[in-house]
Amino acid sequence: MQEQNQQAYDRGTSIFSPDGRIYQVEYAREAIKRGTASVGVRTPDGVVLVADRQVRSRLIEEDSIEKLHRIDDHVAIASAGHVADARQLVDFAREQTQVNRLRYDEPIGVETLSKEITDYIQRYTQSGGVRPFGVALMVAGVDRDGTPRLFETDPSGTPYEWQATSIGGDRETLQGYLEENYRNDLDLDGGVRLALETLAQTSDEIDADTLEVTVVDAETATVRSLDHDEIESHVAELEEEEE
Amino acid sequence: MTEFTDPLTGESAIGDPTAPEIGSLPEGDHQHAADDETVNKTGTTTVGITTDDGVVVATDRRASLGGRFVSNKNVQKVEQIHPTAALTLVGSVGGAQSFIRTLRAESDLYETRRGESMSIHALATLAGNFARGGPFLAINPILGGVDEDGSHVYSIDPAGGVMKDDYTVTGSGMQLAYGTIEGNYDPEMSMDEARDLAVTAIAAATERDTGSGNGVVTAHVTADGVDIETFDSVADARGE
Quick one: which of A36, A50, A218, B99 could link to A195 by a disulfide (CB 3.0–4.6 Å)? Predict the structure, then answer.
């Protein structure tokens, strides 16, 4: 009986179950857990995003697996979950940042952008014939006054602001590590190191080849992706510390 | 290009940078020439002068039909539209009044949604976008405001042109007022000195421009807010 009931509330996204749950949104969260993890760390000097690319085959071009996305000069987004869904939200975010520039001739605030995205996500939990976005995002950026900000979006359309967090698989482990080790006085390099250390909790070794690292620098309010050599030197430093 | 639509309404989910958040701007042709005679215009002289401490805005108080008949002698042609900014009414009274209401709503919504008030540059850009749609609003206001970057004066023309300056004048008495200010403006001026200069500029226009007259309204815009005062004559405004 339980099984049958549940199925009835499975079909439409805008239907509550008798105990007040929206199953499709919860399933979307499950889809995110299947994704590889990304970690975000906010420091006074800027925000760091680190992602691990899942490489299925040595023949695949690694650059074609995009987890970190530049949105505007001063904002980057990390995604976990359904890649195709993420791409839609990423492009939505890119358009919103340009709308803000057209309308006000100013870069959009990170909180404003995050809420534009979550408001859009929310519409897909309340409409018939559509399914929610199977994706979580971390929105990292710098406000006009130079303040670094880090937001998370979830499939229900709720925004959360964090000092440091992770999205994707193994979240409990990663979040636990961040809770233990986060300090609010890290510099950007320290932020990169903490993010890498955190990501390393889920695998035996971290490989610079499959990592993506993007920082949003508070002073210049610009997004910068670290190149392979820079990532490698951070990883090497980390490995030395361990030994 | 992906079309982002709201699944509930089917409408675009991407904001329109030239449309107000609430309501819409008028569409269609410039008002018919036949109606021109009955459309109230401000005629007007409005002045905005920046100082280190803020902005002084001064205007006359006359509304007229084509500058030939005084249709109102008590118009307040400068209104607060933002915690620290004021806009003047210049051109068609209807267009200017609706423009002010729209910008005020935008400014309030921006502030409550984002937790900070709009910068004056953002407000000027938005005003230009709204005016940009066409000359149907027939307005030519001055925006004067103060924010964390300092004091700003912008003129906004009927086609959406937005120009920043140290001081600016719009309206039918513009040449008279400019003649008064040129050579007498000093970037180091105090608010009181700027106010005296602005009132003198309105006085010159009042004497010779048929579209301007019937007293003076001044607005002091500082980081603390907007203070608007009305005077029945130039002499009153000068404290004589």
Answer: A50
- Confidence band (pLDDT; 50, 70, 90) for A32? very high
**A109, A111, A112, A116: CA torsion to nearest 10:** 140
Is the CB of B15 less than 8 angstroms away from the CB of A88? no
Given a contact cutoff of 8 angstroms between Cβ atoms, the answer to whether A127 and A142 are in contact is: no
Residue B102: its chain A contacts at CB < 8 A? none
pLDDT at residue A190, rounded to an integer = 96
Please pick, among B2, B42, B44, B46, the residue that the annotation labels catalytic: B44
Contacts of B109 (CB under 8 A, 6+ apart): B21, B22
pLDDT at site A193: 96
Q: Are B161 and B128 in contact (CB under 8 A)?
A: yes
Contacts of B6 in chain A (CB under 8 A): 120, 123
Of the candidates B163, B120, B154, the one whose C-alpha atom is nearest the C-alpha of residue A104 is: B120
Q: Which of A149, A112, A75, A93 is nearest to B118 (CA)?
A: A112
For residue A74, give Cα distances in angstroms to A46, A55, A148, A152, B42. 10, 29, 10, 17, 44
**Interatomic CA distance for residues B72 and B79, integer angstroms:** 17
User: Quick check: B84 pLDDT over 50?
Assistant: yes
The yes-or-no answer on residue A220 being catalytic is no
Which pTM value belongs to this model? Answer: 0.91
Full DSSP string of B119-154: PHHHHHHHHHHHHHT-GGG-B--EEEEEETTEEEEE
